[in-house]
Amino acid sequence: MLRKLLLVVLVALVSACSSGGGAELPAGPDLMKKASEAMKTVKSASFSITTEGKPKVPLKQADGRLTAAGDADGTISLEVLGSLQEITFALVGDTVHFKGPTGGFQRLTRKELAQLYDPSLILSPDKGVPQLLATAGDPRVEAEENGAYRVATTFSGPVLGTLVPGVTQGVNGTVWVDKATSRLTKVVLPLQDGTVTVAFSDYDAPVTITPPPSAG
What we know:
Layout: H1 2-19, H2 28-39, E1 44-53, E2 59-67, E3 72-80, E4 83-92, E5 95-99, E6 106-109, H3 110-114, H4 129-134, E7 137-145, E8 148-155, H5 157-163, E9 171-178, E10 184-191, E11 194-201
Antiparallel strand pairs: 1-2, 1-11, 2-3, 3-4, 4-5, 5-6, 7-8, 8-9, 9-10, 10-11
Subcellular location: Cell envelope
InterPro entries: LolA/LolB/LppX, LppX/LprAFG
Keywords: Cell membrane, Lipoprotein, Membrane, Signal
């Protein structure tokens, strides 16, 4: 009798362990395709870019808001000739209003900004996050964490450079895709001498980007 009871308990334990307590993880390529399509429908988002260590990229930190129309505002910290410069910007239409730590706002054209960094491309279906996810190489879903799937994958340098300027080589990174919406929540990119993390939030929140009052 005791032997039978022990066998029943053992079978129950094995079954519980093998089931993993949840649903089977999705296939990586299917999830990336779904996430890419989901990102194409985004109307607006908030983003942040942070660095740890000393990765060899000029962009060190950024926070801002984006719209699908290509407008954006926020702050960016760039390393220029060995000096860290924090820039406040508002990109409206074809005009960029920007200012450094001192002085008033100045103007650039969108084309001139693109030579440094154009954050408005982050939501671009052809050049931004949707393209980054669509071209991700060998994606492998590793786990489910806090309502998101963690995926190990490889990104090509040219596509990744749109998100993080200065990146030219392929990178083995990790992304988190929201389980409910299939939208991207975070990207972690290990680079030489440091790590870059890009995070997204406030999807489709009402956003109106306007020129700063002092821009004239």
